[in-house]
Amino acid sequence: MQILLKTTLTVLMLMTATQISADDTAITVYSTAAAGSISPQQFQSPSANIPGYAMVKQDRIIDIKNGQFELRFADVTSQIDPTTVSFTTPNNPGAAYVLDQNYQFDIVSTEKLLAKYVGQQVIVEHTSGGKNKTINGRLLGTNGGIIIQESNGSVITLSGYDSVAFPSLPGGLLTKPTLLWLLKGKKSGEELARVTYQTQGMTWWADYNLTLTEDGNQCRMDLSSWVSLLNQAGSSFKNTKLKLIAGEVNRVQPTPPRMRVEKSQRLSSIAEADTGFQEKSLFEYHLYTLPRRVDLPNNSTKQIELFPTVNSVECSKDLVFNGSQIFNHHYYSPITASNYLRSAKPKVKAFISFINSKDKGLGIPLPAGRIRVSQLDEADNSLEFIGEDIIDHTPRNETITIELGNSFDVVGQRKQTNIIVGKKEITETFEIKIRNQKETTTKVKVVEPLYRWSNWKVTSSSEKYTKQNSSTIDFEVKLKPEEEKVITYTVHYWWK
After folding, report:
1. Cα–Cα distance, 133 to 125 (Å, whole number)
2. Domain ranges in the chain?
């Protein structure tokens, strides 16, 4: 269905207000999405809840009038938060100031045009019996179709039609969201006006691609990263400056946060090329600035390189067996059930870890995102996907651990072999079997959370163990091809 407007909409919109010419735009996008939780496909609907927001700064040259005058600003997004709008004249502070502001968002649509023209003359084109027909009459109603009264008094009901021609755009309808200000200027003349506001409908996330190389006991990887930027704010931005904020910014305050950049902060040496972002600290967050301008069309996702590929980063591969499958354990009260976690045969998990430090080949703050891992198949020189995980915001010099999946050829089994339950104590013995069905020697870390109570002591053990923390021990096991190793240990718990 086509809507034919017989009047130029732009002229009608701007005929009563000062016009503004485009000059410059800068956008800072914040992401509040959980790492790796976003897929562009889930935001096909414009009404989707985008887990992020942006600060938009637009510079325009305007004609200031002496005294009170109206200014219509029609370049804002449809998801603007009008309570965050700021208007300044940075080159001449106080040259004009806002007396009041109206946010007009009654956007033109077929339904609204028809509703506005009930009782008035319209021209309707429709197809009947394979022929095109034109009806010129008064619009009586729009419920369940349209009802037209012709000049001879006859009434026609149409459930479908091809187009409707309206003589003009009715008052109060706009083609885009608009800010209307009543300003007071000191004197007439051109001035640079800076408008900033916060908008929903924009977010970003990082995607990492890791290529793994294993050579004997050595683990090396190549790491590349891309930023995916989603714009569903209801407006397109051309030739705009772009910044990204990584970190958890508190938004309790109703006004945009004012943050100051320390001049002494240096840019990351890895991301200084024009193809990637420049990174520096901003308050307790990290700011990524793209040194070139970009176009951000509405209803689109854009990918931009975060930093150039970093080659030959040191890493380590770990196989981990956690027979109890308890993670992040907290003590609340003693666990006295004798059959609690008596036996289990979970999978042995495979992990890749690396230190985000300069001496290991990295040393840059890594925003939260999804990391995909591939390995080269030398038979045909192709990359094969071997797993993926998500990472949180990770500062320099911290360790990143990526869970890839389960080992096919290394298996484990854990079972309780003895337990003595007393009034205020428990003594428990476990047997853990690890089997290596590979053709190569491999290492396995056996993790044992001591979950019954916080007071514990390992009274005997067949293998040397390491205390990870106050509630966990682990064993390092090295197995030859087709070898099985058995670990037994006894732990004593007590409480008052």
Report:
1. 6
2. 118-166, 315-356+398-494
Say if domain 315-356+398-494 classifies as CATH 1.10.3470. no
The tens digit of pLDDT for each residue in 81-134 reads 999 999 999 999 999 999 999 887 766 777 778 887 788 888 888 888 788 888
Q: pLDDT tier at 147 (50, 70, 90 boundaries)? A: confident
Cβ-contact 231, 211 below 8 angstroms: no
Whole-model pTM: value is 0.72
CATH of 118-166, one of 2.120.10.30, 2.30.30.520, 3.40.50.150, 3.40.50.970: 2.30.30.520
The number of angstroms, rounded, from the C-alpha of 171 to the middle of its chain's C-alpha atoms is 39
> What are 50's two structure tokens?
């985008």
**304, 229 Cβ separation under 8 angstroms:** yes
* Token pair 């670990």 in the structure block, residue: 487
Residue 159's pLDDT band (cuts 50, 70, 90): confident
Which residues, 6+ apart, have CB-to-CB distance to 19 below 8 Å?
A: 63, 72
CB 319 within 8 A of CB 474: no
- Token couple for 272: 């200084």
